[in-house]
Amino acid sequence: MKRTDLINRLRVAGYHDDQAALVRLYTENRIRYDKAIRTFDEGKRLRRSGVRCDCYECRREAHAPPQGYGILGAAAWERGES
Ligand SMILES: [Zn+2]
Question: Which domain holds residue 14?
Fold first, then answer.
């Protein structure tokens, strides 16, 4: 899994408070535990701040709004990557 994909999945897992996904992503990939937890918590924080989730499942449920304007796009923007 690419690093960016891993980070995005951890963030989405946090957004959905999906502990099982966190454990699976951590054990199956090379990432420091504190980094995994920090990214997971970032997803939770984004949910509390009302940012929309734009993971595949959520976009499908919302009948596919544009990609890149929810937590994945917002998080990239926060890091200055856009
Ligand atoms: Zn989602």
Answer: 3-78
What would the DSSP string read from start to end of 8-68?
A: HHHHHHHHTT-HHHHHHHHHHS---HHHHHHHHHHHHHHHHTTPPP-SHHHHHHTT-PPTT
pLDDT in tens, 8-48: 999 999 999 999 999 999 999 999 999 999 999 999 999 99
Instruction: Give how many domains the chain has, as a whole number.
Output: 1
Ligand 1 centroid from CA 34, angstroms:
22
Cβ contacts of 1 within 8 Å, gap of 6 or more: 9, 28, 29
CA of 80 to the centre of ligand 1 (A): 22
pTM of the model: 0.78
